[in-house]
Amino acid sequence: MSGFEELLASALDGDRRALAKLLTIVERGGEESRRLLATVYPRAGTAHVVGVTGPPGAGKSTLVNQLIGQVRAGDDEVAALLVDPSSPFSGGAILGDRIRMQDRVSDPGVYARSMASRGQLGGVSDAAPKAVVVLDAVGFPYIVLETVGVGQAEVDIVESAHTTLVVLNPGWGDSIQAAKAGLLEIGDVFVVNKADRPGVESTVADLNHMLHDGPERAWTPPVLTTVAQTGEGADALWDAVRDHQQYLTGEAGEAVARRQAEREVRLAMHELLVQRAEQVVDQAAFEASIAEVIARRLDPWTAAAELLRS
Amino acid sequence: MSGFEELLASALDGDRRALAKLLTIVERGGEESRRLLATVYPRAGTAHVVGVTGPPGAGKSTLVNQLIGQVRAGDDEVAALLVDPSSPFSGGAILGDRIRMQDRVSDPGVYARSMASRGQLGGVSDAAPKAVVVLDAVGFPYIVLETVGVGQAEVDIVESAHTTLVVLNPGWGDSIQAAKAGLLEIGDVFVVNKADRPGVESTVADLNHMLHDGPERAWTPPVLTTVAQTGEGADALWDAVRDHQQYLTGEAGEAVARRQAEREVRLAMHELLVQRAEQVVDQAAFEASIAEVIARRLDPWTAAAELLRS
Fold first, then answer.
1. Residue A149 to residue B149, Cβ atoms within 8 A
2. CB contact under 8 A, B289 and A265
3. pTM
4. In what order do the strands lie in the sheet with B189-192?
5. Residuewise pLDDT in 10s, chain B (310 residues)
6. Does A86 reach chain B within 8 Å, measured CB to CB?
7. Looking at the domain that runs over B45-249, which CATH code has it been given?
């Protein structure tokens, strides 16, 4: 038996250290990761994945802690993955979050981990959806995926979730900011957190107005309010997530599964092609092209085509 | 002469409608875009590109308007590009910003445009850096690149700028949020906007503390304050941008040019490979693979490898 197969057997028995090692394999990528994923993929597909996104400072981490509490109150196990933009300099996750994620680590029914999400060429070889497959395969019925930022890459990340929770705050730029950031169309459930602050009613009203302004949809995203610090509203929020989970048992769920399968296969092709290009392209030719591009004797697009042709 | 060459000649003569059509060609992509870029690339390389990023609602657009005013006070022309996440549903830019960008359109020395930034596979075939090449080539000495969100893709976008301006607000999560979003390491100039609100001193102090906490750098990012609504501090902010521009005339500028050339060539290779894959992969084979993946008889990574092999 190779290394990961032993680890997988242990992880399936509930060994969290083995699970952590499997996720490190996935994060590292390469051939072992591919074999691991091929092995576990048939076991996955039963977890409900909840994506949590929203602007920095909206209280996503605190709310995720409350949601974990809700899942645990129902006695289900839950994994929480904080998808962290690795800095172009440090390449690392932010220590503060790693620490915060430890809050519930004493509960063996909770597994928390932060994970870098950035590939060599801008977020492509994203380990998060692969980590979700592993967590799903080892039996977590709920997986919470939290993003740090709120941008395009983060929208991509939550697209791998079944239920996307968008967390906003009262008065956060009059909801128009949520629209600008592309959040209105990706959310299945909206929550105005820090609802003990002024302006909560108008933010909720604005959101409801904007969400119901478009074409009619089979699922109407509810807008809830929470005070994550105290836990107020967390139970109703979790009920809304469960409602959406229930909704996905029908045709809607099949559409989501199909969209996600297409997305994963495309991303995987993409990643393979980029890896291949990195292997195939001659370093000396690359350096020579770069020198020409810097001197503006050659444009980057022609340079790329020539490098790939050779 | 083909279409774009006539347009280019007109755009070089200051025809904004011709310029708009060139940018549409770039946005559309494909062979004409590639020929256009190859043609204009040797003319580009003199503009100073200022990237503006920060959380939604921080006042980036208002601040960009003020910066445009500063550039115009010095009688230079300026182009402003709002890089907009296209929604996965609408595929479009947000109308509100298009309108807001029109504020200064009556000034012929200002060209403003919003532009979608999302490729088919998640932000890869990003038109923004290409639009910058065109704007640079037709002679704008300053180009301001504003992002809507604040996530990984946005960090990538501002990496194509020479000077990156990070816009925060007083008390915005105690600057730790800026660190979490990976903003501290990408900013060349930091500005705490809405500085008429409480908490500005502590936010500035926190930022200064965090920015000076790391290894010593040749350029120490200054932390300024503005009230974009009134224009307070905009002149000092523009001076800081100019200082950074001056700093880049040395070795630091060569390093930036090199990094950007490498980045553009890599991204261009990446984009070409993805396009090729889309052309090469047989649609029926793709559909068959997706069905297997949905049924969990095949994992997406093996499916991708098989599709690319055939």
1. yes
2. yes
3. 0.74
4. B110-116, B78-84, B142-147, B48-53, B163-168, B189-192, B223-225
5. 457 999 999 999 999 999 999 999 998 888 899 899 999 999 999 999 999 988 777 888 899 999 999 999 999 999 998 876 554 433 334 444 444 555 555 788 999 888 765 543 443 347 888 999 999 999 999 999 988 765 656 666 677 899 999 999 897 665 666 776 677 878 999 999 999 999 999 999 989 988 887 677 789 999 999 999 999 999 999 999 999 999 999 888 998 899 889 988 988 888 888 777 778 888 999 999 999 999 999 999 999 999 988 7
6. yes
7. 3.40.50.300
Helix (H) or strand (E) holding B299: none
Strand order, beta sheet including A223-225: A110-116, A78-84, A142-147, A48-53, A163-168, A189-192, A223-225
Does B205 contact chain A (CB < 8 Å)? no
Alpha-carbon gap, residue A66 to A63, rounded angstroms = 5
Annotate A141-164 with DSSP letters as a single string: SEEEEEESSBSHHHHHHHTTSSEE
Instruction: Give the nearest partner residue to B181 out of A56, A181, A289, using CB atoms.
Output: A56
Chain A CB contacts of B55 below 8 Å: 55-57, 150
Domain locations along chain B: 1-43, 45-249, 268-309
Optimal mutation site among B134, B185, B266, B276, interface A, most CBs of chain A within 10 A:
B266
Query: What is the rounded CA–CA span in Å between residue B241 and residue B221?
Result: 10
The token pair at B135 is: 């704007």
Of A96, A117, A153, which has the smallest distance from its Cβ to B176's Cβ? A96
Touching A: B residues 151-170, CB under 8 Å: 151-156, 159
- B residues 266-305 near A, CB within 8 Å? 266-274, 276-277, 281, 286, 289-290, 293-294, 296-305
- Long-range contacts, stretch B244-248, CB < 8 angstroms, 24+ apart: B244/B162, B244/B163, B244/B188, B244/B189, B244/B219, B245/B48, B245/B162, B245/B163, B247/B218, B247/B219, B248/B162, B248/B163
Residue to test with chain A: of B265, B280, B287, B293, most A Cβ within 10 A: B265
Residue in A117, A159, A262 closest to B290 by CB: A262
Any residues with CB less than 8 A from the CB of A197 and at least 6 apart, and which? A169, A170, A171
Q: How long, in residues, is chain B?
A: 310
- Burial (CB count within 10 angstroms: exposed 0-12, middle 13-18, buried 19+), residue A15: middle
Which residues are bridge partners to A190 per DSSP? A166, A223
Do A32 and B301 contact (CB within 8 A), yes or no?
no
